[in-house]
Design brief:
The complex is a heterodimer of chains A (about 180) and B (about 160). Helix content of chain A is about 35%, strand content about 20%. With about 180 residues, chain A is α/β, with parallel strands linked by helices. In chain A, helix 3 (about 105-115) links the parallel strand 4 and strand 5. Chain A is elongated. In chain A, about 35% of the residues are buried. Chain B is mainly α. Chain B has two domains: about 1-100, Cytochrome C biogenesis protein (Helicase, Ruva Protein, domain 3, Orthogonal Bundle); about 100-165. Helix content of chain B is about 75%, strand content about 0%. In chain B, helix 2 crosses helix 3. Classes of the chains: A alpha/beta (about 180), B mainly alpha (about 160).
Chain lengths: ~180, ~160
């Protein structure tokens, strides 16, 4: 009697954890890699921008920020998200700071992109040695980090920004979409 | 000749174990910075390519990571600190080999469960076969007893008729 109970228990004990692993594993988007930076202070950086000025993340203190990694060769994703960034900068000029970071791109390539798809009012880091890309664990453009006023990274989005993404992530940094 | 087989096999096994112990426990020669850098690059995943390590890839991101490894090692950082530097920004994803012990133990545990299950199944089959053999033997004994009884009854009947 006891042996038959054990036999009946063995199957669910083996199958249920395996089923749970497969269910949770297969339900995940393999392109979304969780960032260890979320919940931590933003990695600081400083350097030259596309317009030749100097920029440092120290100037972001006390203001929510969006750090957007992009490149001129990143087509169509970076082209698709560009209008959303322009709109965001226009609507939140006073309460949100945007910062662009080039990923393995030439300044000329980036300038050509902006001339074609719309000039920006925010700084874009040249990042010619790729140090900022490594510090943020970026796998490829476009990628965007949402940083709150206290300088804590609240979200990371891999892929082009859309209205739905902004509606979900902006409240995390205290900005109304 | 056969009596030497076991001692020879044991001696060979001991020699192999000794060789393995010496190979594993022998202190490795210290690596140069370039060798250390290459070994670390081979452990890290290239962020913008598919299934390639930083050491194998020629993308700008892989080059930047190789440069960063060189800089960190030259600054006196240990290999563990260099690994941590990259996992702090990319997560465990950047390492090509998993560090969680469960990833290494799972196949061993699965193999053990399989072996134990197979042995239990084989032993059960053997026990059932043995039980079946015993019951066949008892059935034969029963038949013989019955036949002896019948023979006795025939003998008694014949004796009664003779009388």
């Amino acid at each position: 009697m006891r042996r038959s109970w054990i036999r009946f228990l063995i199957v669910p004990l083996l199958v249920l954890p395996l089923g749970w692993l497969l269910f949770t594993g297969l339900g995940r988007d393999p392109r979304v890699i969780p960032s260890p930076l979320v919940g931590k202070a933003l990695p600081a950086f400083a350097g030259t921008t596309l317009t030749g000025e100097q920029f440092s993340t120290a100037s972001l203190a006390g203001k929510p920020a969006i750090i957007n990694f992009w490149a001129s060769y990143c087509i169509p994703s970076c082209v698709d998200e560009h209008p959303f960034l322009l709109d965001l900068a226009a609507r939140h000029a006073a309460d949100l700071q945007l910062v662009g970071v080039l990923v393995n791109d030439s300044p000329d390539g980036a300038r050509g992109f902006l001339a074609r798809y719309g000039q920006i009012s925010w700084p874009t880091m040249l990042n010619s040695d790729g140090q900022i890309t490594i510090a943020y664990g970026v796998t490829g453009p476009p990628e965007t980090f949402f940083v709150d006023a206290a300088g804590i990274v609240r979200a990371r989005h891999v892929g082009p920004l859309t209205a739905a993404v902004l509606a979900e992530e902006l409240p995390l940094i205290g900005i109304t979409p | 000749m056969r009596q030497y087989a076991l001692p020879v096999a044991l001696a060979a096994l001991l020699a192999l174990a000794g060789l393995a112990a010496v190979t594993l426990l022998r202190p490795a020669a210290p690596l140069t910075l370039a060798e250390e850098s290459r070994a670390l690059a081979a452990e890290l995943r290239c962020p913008d390519c598919q299934a390639l390590s930083v050491a194998e890839s020629h993308t700008a991101a892989a080059r930047a990571i190789r440069d960063e490894i060189d800089l960190l090692l030259a600054a006196g950082e240990s290999p563990d600190a260099v690994r941590r530097h990259f996992t702090d920004s990319y997560g465990e994803w950047i390492l090509l080999s998993p560090t969680a012990p469960i990833a290494w133990w799972m196949p061993v545990v699965a193999l053990l469960i399989g072996v134990v299950g197979l042995m239990a199944w084989l032993l059960r089959g053997r026990r059932r076969a043995a039980e079946a053999g015993t019951s066949d033997a008892s059935a034969n004994v029963g038949d013989e007893l019955q036949q002896d009884e019948l023979r006795q009854r025939v003998r008694d009947e014949l004796e009664r008729l003779d009388a």
